[in-house]
Design goal:
760 residues; alpha+beta; six-stranded mixed beta sheet
């Protein structure tokens, strides 16, 4: 477990150093886009074209380019659909609501077979207007270049396309539309909507692994211009800054927006009353919204006439950032109260642990997409519930905190991976796990006892016990239990690293250094591991190996405790100690009964002599002389040590077993006879010579009456029943039930009155 991780990490080079920092020859590609798109609300379709300028900053000549076609994942013949497997037969037939086939599942299967999804490319042409040869391989597009693109060169080309937008309530994807049939209105959340340049980088080459729905994205930074043509009564939220506010917004809306920028609380740009009035109208005209985004890796947008819009400004790195939310009336009262405030809180907290938010906007949009992130904009689900009978609108505690959490999480993705640009297609944990960890820190700064999804070690215990898991370092398309593996377990591991292994000061410094080093660059896992080691000054190879490369669990057992004393060599003390040990031994049943027998020496005292008055523990002058001679031969420090032992120090030898396989520090809570408790922390390196069994010496001033390993549940130990000495009784409840002797009475069930049918 303490082998160096270098044996499995890639060799450092001029691009990525052994310290985890970008090397002096580090490079990355760039892609700039100008996109024109039209939303057809009636047909629920997009028609668009884009001009891409691709900059080859690599040392390699490129004969072809790869682009991502994510919408092809919902084509009828897509691999994403064909590789879908059902739960086990037992799960389908179990009757367990969490595992059995649901109405929504069956509806999605039918819809996936019928929906005409995917990109329809109408043209791929060079900057001069000449057709470029291309090949579509499922969700990847290869464009073959007439002349190789040499290092340092750029190329521009144009793609025209269209596609049908999926019903997000039926085909659950990362974007789509939500229709409100009672009023015939729609919210469109548009993402992964244009052919995007695939990543090309030193560690992988072209990242052209197929998109099967789980592995997200590896993209290049660039500048974007968006021209989005939508119905004239729609409001658009998008990545970037709005360039033509005077054309698409009213004077009142512009005034409100300007006021909100300097406000310390959210202000309404479009009121609920104005949004409700817009819902009842239908414009036959269109408007084009123009946005610019600088140095982002992707763009997304949302459009609807239903949107209420609120905004608030906040300071970040010496500039004013706009936090904004767009939501329908169905989102209130939750959204107006919490959404923008959660956006602001996320930025304030993430800035503390990484870097200042670098973009001008941060937007939260409510629609059917449960939670998905893009630069400057995120799609977040969650709404109150309206009672069908009374019309009363309420929300549960879970709904409230789930909404705050998902907004913090998705806004947090602006940092990881939107700026620290990890390869999501290959390593889901590098964005989801790191972001979930920071989400936990932000949530705990929201209010006391915030009900976080993860972070606390005790919440990962069930996953760590599971046999149905794979190492964190597994490609996301092959991961079992993705939420637990890519989100919860790495988030918990990082929290343990911060609280238990390194401490907050060392961890926070190292983590911030990682964020600073790889801001607007593309790190790999090795870069993260090496940076945390380099900046903290701590060898963490054992930690990464155990938590990220294995499925081992933490299960440290206290096997036994022995108390030892060091001989003082003083016969007065030592013989008295031996006599006490003898007296403490159990008295046999025969000896107990023999004590009642009359004794000869009691009736005839003349039989008693020296040996009746003295025993083996009597101190003799010979004993005393030997002690004095030996004491004279001791060094002063040796005499002092013996005197300390004579003053009542207690020495214990504690045996521990590592039953789970994952080495961790020992956190020992020692309870003394006086009731005083001491916590001793032993680094994980205590296991370095023997990872399965060790013995630890504990010295106390008083007798030890209790010992608990991991008293605060901070290591995710999967079995706390073996963590205490003496063993603790586990409290539980035994339920008593009356036996149902008439449980399977078919005649009784058959004659049960049918609901809703009057007896005749």
């Amino acid at each position: 477990m303490f082998r160096q991780l270098e044996e499995i990490l890639p060799t450092p080079n001029t691009y990525r150093t052994a310290s985890g920092a970008p090397g002096h020859a580090y490079w990355q590609q760039r892609a700039d886009y100008v996109i024109h798109a039209t939303l057809d609300e009636k047909r629920r379709a997009i028609t668009a074209s884009e001009k891409i300028t691709y900059h080859n900053r690599s040392p390699d000549s490129l004969n072809y380019l790869w682009l991502q076609l994510d919408q092809n994942g919902i084509r009828k013949d897509a691999d994403q659909r064909r590789v879908l497997s059902a739960p086990s037969r037992q799960a389908w037939l179990s009757g367990n609501e969490d595992e059995a086939l649901k109405f929504e599942d069956l509806r999605a299967i039918h819809a996936g077979r019928a929906f005409d999804g995917g990109f329809n490319l109408s043209a791929v042409t060079s900057d001069a207007g000449k057709p470029l040869p291309y090949v579509i391989n499922q969700t990847m597009l290869r464009i073959d270049l007439p002349v190789a693109l040499a290092p340092g060169q750029s190329i521009s080309f144009t793609i025209a396309w269209s596609y049908n937008i999926n019903d997000q309530k039926v085909l659950v994807e990362r974007s789509g539309y939500e229709h409100f049939p009672e009023e015939d209105n729609t919210i469109f959340q548009i993402a992964q909507w244009f052919p995007r340049m695939a990543a090309y980088y030193d560690a992988v080459g072209w990242q052209n692994k197929q998109y099967l729905g789980t592995g997200e994205f590896a993209l290049e930074f660039g500048d974007y211009e968006l021209y989005l043509t939508v119905p004239a009564d729609h409001v658009v939220a998008a990545t970037g800054e709005l360039q033509n506010a005077s054309t698409v917004l009213s004077a009142v809306q512009r005034e409100r927006l300007a006021k909100a920028k300097n406000s310390a609380t959210p202000l309404l740009v479009i009121t609920p009353e104005e949004a409700l009035a817009a819902e009842r109208r239908r414009s036959t005209d269109t408007k084009t919204w123009h946005f610019k985004a600088v140095n982002v890796r992707d763009v997304a947008w949302a459009s609807s006439r239903k949107f209420i819009w609120d905004a608030q400004g906040l300071d970040s790195g010496g500039k004013r950032v706009m936090a904004m939310s767009f939501y329908p009336k169905e989102g209130n009262p939750l959204w107006q109260q919490y959404s923008t405030r959660a956006v602001v809180h996320a930025i304030e907290q993430y800035n503390k642990y990484s870097f200042d938010y670098p973009y001008p906007n941060a937007i939260s949009v409510n629609g059917a997409v449960g939670g998905m992130e893009y630069p400057m904009i995120s799609f977040n689900g969650g709404r109150p519930v309206k009672d069908k009978k009374t019309g009363a609108v309420t929300y549960s505690k879970t709904a409230k905190y789930d909404l705050i959490s998902v907004i913090i999480h998705e806004v947090g993705h602006n940092y990881f991976p939107m700026v620290v640009n990890s390869d999501e297609r290959q390593w889901a944990w590098m964005d989801e796990g790191i972001n979930s960890f920071l989400q936990y820190l932000a949530e705990q700064a929201w209010e006391e006892d915030y009900p976080s999804w993860n972070g606390e070690p005790r919440k990962i215990v069930d996953t760590m016990r599971s046999q149905n898991q794979v190492p964190i370092m597994t490609n996301p398309e092959s991961v079992l239990l993705l939420p637990q593996n890519a989100y919860d377990k790495p988030a918990t591991a990082l929290n343990i690293l911060r609280e238990t292994i390194l401490g907050r000061e060392l961890f926070d410094f190292a983590f911030k250094e990682y964020a600073r080093r790889w801001k607007f660059k593309r790190p790999t896992p090795a870069d993260f591991f090496r940076t945390m080691k380099d900046a903290s000054g701590t060898d963490l190879d054992w930690f990464w190996r155990g938590w990220f490369y294995t499925t081992d669990a933490v299960d440290i057992s206290i096997d036994g405790i022995s108390e030892y004393g060091v001989s003082t060599k003083d016969p007065e003390i030592e013989k008295a100690w031996k006599k006490a040990q003898k007296a403490a031994q159990p008295i046999s049943i025969s000896s107990q009964r023999n004590k009642l027998l009359p004794k000869k020496v009691d009736s005839d005292p003349a039989l008693k002599d020296f040996y009746n008055e003295h025993d083996d523990y009597t101190v003799t002058n010979k004993d005393r002389n030997a002690y004095l001679e030996e004491r004279e031969g001791l060094e002063p420090w040796e005499r002092q040590l013996l005197e300390q032992r004579a003053q009542g120090k207690h020495l214990y030898l504690v045996d521990f077993s590592n039953l789970g396989g994952l080495v961790m520090p020992l956190i020992l809570e020692i309870t003394l006879a006086s009731g005083k408790k001491i916590v001793e922390r032993v680094p994980a390196e205590v296991w370095r010579y023997s990872p399965k069994k060790i013995s630890k010496v504990i010295i106390t001033d008083e007798p030890m009456v209790g010992l608990v390993q991991d008293p605060y549940w901070e290591t995710a130990d999967i079995d706390t029943s073996n963590n205490a000495w003496p063993r603790k009784v586990t409290p539980s409840r035994l339920e008593l039930f009356k036996q149902d002797r008439d449980k399977n009475n078919l005649m009784k069930d058959f004659n049960t009155p049918l609901k809703g049918v009057e007896a005749k």
